[in-house]
Write a structure and sequence with these properties.
mainly alpha, 11 helices, 73% helix, globular
Length: 262
Amino acid sequence: MSTYCCLSDNAMSARNELEYFFGAIRFFTRLPVPAWVGHSSEALERSSRYFPAVGLIVGAIAALVFVLTSFFWPKTLAVLSAMAITLYVTGAFHEDGWSDMVDGFGGGWEKSQILTIMKDSRIGSFGAVALVMMLLTKFFALVEIELLLVPVALIAGHSFSRLCATLVLRTLDYVRDEGKAKLLATHIGKGELAFAAGTALLPLLLLPPQQSIPGVVLALLATVWLARMFKRRIGGYTGDCLGATQQLAEVAFYGGLLCRFS
């Protein structure tokens, strides 16, 4: 009887973890999830450990598109195709957060002003310029990365940058009373953070250390800089801040891969 109960508990635990994982996929992407996955708030609250895993999936899709298109298109168009598929798969979720964050912090002086501007669905001049610059920087950085390393760079960049967003979630407080990201606003435990970090670090093993280490360092520096600004200006973070962190950390990671020391 005890053995049966143990097996039953293990099966339930595995099902719960799958629900948390698919919950993260549904929240951050447009990818389909199994019909049995519910919409419980608990699943979304516990899904933060799987943010880098979602990055692995998005990055792997981008890498696959890059590899396939590079057989018949030049590298520039292959990179553009890889970027386009990530925008489609995620619904430009993080890019929208980046532009809203820049609009808010660029146009607002006080906390209430910043939060109001970020909540506005319309894009302002600060956000438009920042979005164009972000996409251009990402494009040219990927074009400059060695051809054979681009697929791994995409997977590692998407995964590690989502770990950076998770670190912001872990260290700061959510500052809105409501919002799509409110259910994510839980301080994840050390074990959950370690799992997220392990997931994000795995693809880095496929990159030369002299490239992956500067990539990690620059991504973390970008995250620390944003986190300090969030804390100073609004006392914490919003969903847009998490998206902005993912975007800047991803670009910083690619920039680190291109650092030359000789």
